[in-house]
Amino acid sequence: MRSIQKEEIRTRSEFRYAHHPKDVKGYTTEELREHFLIPELFVKDQISLTYTMYDRYIPGGAFPVSKSLKLEAIDELKADNFLDRRELGVINFGGKGKITVDGESYEIGHREALYVGRGPKDVVFEATDEQPYFYINSAPAHKSYPTKKVTKKEAEVVELGDSKYSNKRVINKLLVNSVIDTCQLQMGMTELQEGNIWNTMPPHTHERRLEVYFYFDLAEGQTVSHFMGQPQETRHIFLQNHQAVISPQWSIHAGAGISILTFIWGKAGENLDYGDMDKVSVDELK
Q1: 244: which strand partners?
Q2: pLDDT digits (tens, 9 = 90+) for 83-97
Q3: Contact 47, 60 (CB under 8 A)
Q4: Among 123, 200, 210, 234, which is least packed by CB within 10 angstroms?
Q5: Residues in binding site
Q6: What is the model's pTM?
Q7: Of the ranges 25-29, 170-174, 258-262, which one carries the lowest mean pLDDT score?
Q8: For binding Zn(2+), which residues are annotated in this chain's numbering (predicted)?
Q9: Listed residue (220, 163, 165, 213) closest to 190, CA to CA
């Protein structure tokens, strides 16, 4: 892992390699966290990005407080502009903010999303009278689709789970192919219902797609245990509020929170079918 600090353009980036599941079996807690946990996405007046070799996916955060922040191309892209060969998804889980794409401004409110297709040269994040938290995901793109704002009212909403199993939840599909056109990027937000602690349980894998989970809405001082690994070789990582975890294609991705929580999921790969998953029965987990 290496870190590059670029103070002049207010962008901080990290690089993460992909891993063989047999190697991960031997990782210590510290090594597991080093390779899969993204501990800090929101730094005042900075854009923080993590470039992962899993489907060349980039999760990150833009946190404009006193300055506007332009999305710049990082070294790993070998491009003049960030979106020359990429698409971008943004979900704001903070107060109202503004995103300007090649001169056209979009007001993005609490739990609203913006999709930006391949090609625009200037993407700028700004705070208005409130403090936004712009959570970013990006994936390679083979063509350009129009920029589009998506509100929660426009999302495809699915209710899953049962309080009997402590996994009742509401899934808000915001940037998915049933709502907008994308190349491969998909993003949404899952809200656990009061008294329920488990997300994505029963678990699954999908070898055709990487996924990244970003957790928020955790009460102060609380934590969530994220479970990963092959179904018969599971591991766990404890996360705090506003932290993310990379979930490889061969890994389950489920979590149990000490308090109520919400998480944003983002994924990319060769299949846009949301139901494309290899389900695992809970009594098969080890």
Answers
A1: 38, 214
A2: 999 999 999 999 999
A3: yes
A4: 234
A5: 204, 206, 211, 253
A6: 0.93
A7: 258-262
A8: 204, 206, 211, 253
A9: 213
